[in-house]
Amino acid sequence: MSVEINKVGVVGCGTMGSGICEVVARSGYDVVFAEMDEEAERAGRERIERSVARAVKRGKLDQGAAHDLLGHISSTTDLAGLGDCDLAFEAVPEKLELKKQTFAALDQVLKPEAILATNTSSLPVIDMAVATNRPDRVVGFHFFNPATVMKLVELVHTVATDEKVVESAKQFALGLGKVAVPCRDRAGFIANLLLFPYLNAATRMYDQGYASREDIDAAMQLGCGHPMGPLALLDLIGLDSAYEICEALWRQWRDYADAPQPLLKQFVTAGYLGRKTGRGFYRYESPESPRIADAIPESEGASASNVGMVGVVGTGLMASGIAEVIAKAGGEVVLRGRSETAIDNAKTALTKSLERAVNKGKLEDTDASLALARVSTTLDFEDFAECDLVIEAVAEDLEVK
User: Fold this and answer.
1) Where are the domains of the chain?
2) What is the CATH T-level fold of the domain 304-392, as seen in this structure?
3) Which pLDDT score is estimated for 191?
4) Which is the catalytic residue, given 121, 168, 241, 320?
């Protein structure tokens, strides 16, 4: 039985629920969200209004569109208010029993042809589906945080899900401007099964004193090109959600990389859940604020002025890249190679890289010439005698190093 989706219900209007409401309403659908009491209902409405106001301030929405969007959203404290919805999402906390109870209650009030969708990021969808009398009409519909920005939706089908229901859910996702990725009902689905062992490892590194939170995050942002570091990302996700996701992965896969780190549990017990409470790995100016209140001031770099000449051992891609960065910054570089051929290859690679930067408008031709002139070469380690710093950049072989 296929469904034409016109009205959407959302149970829970926290971080994810409010984002889902906004995304759905922005696409022109009528949305009604349900909360457990009037205080939570009011908080949910205010959360949506703040998000829409930010979108207007950033030029993502005009005032008219914002007014229309908010006009599509209503709220209730009674699940019966979702009775005429064609599709209902649960977006309650990541606890299986709570989600099962929510689905069982929704099943009693929704019309027979309505689709039930869970926004779980890791829990078994089939366990929720069998809490209803319509397991064939239950899908996983995992939005990513923030739902208003992230394009991906993981569309999870169980062994019981009707193919027409999956297709209806897919078309709905496409109508929201999302990319729907179908996947099987396994803990973590696709993204979180890959992501959370990494986040868990970052938590362990921080807890065991490998590095500061800032340096762990900077390493992944600047070294691996990630838009956010792992600890800042955990704060954004919510440490309570992160803990439950790791627990779900551990229960199914029994891989120690998934077992939640004790520090996560301690943060959750203390009520430090990340941005939404104003404190997690970082402290924030206020709950839900992205602004970090206890950031370490950046160094003014005074010590860098003491390094005038740098030696680089090696002639490969990494060595020539290091030489280029230093030379463009005004430093003198001595590049040491094992043979004239290796040195010539490194100089050629450096020249071509600088030429590409000029052609792309990232560097002036004069600056490229000056940078190239700052790099000298040698076959002899003794030529490093005047260097203030020597960097080894040879092959990743311990004996060679």
Assistant:
1) 7-184, 191-277, 304-392
2) Rossmann fold (3.40.50)
3) 94
4) 121
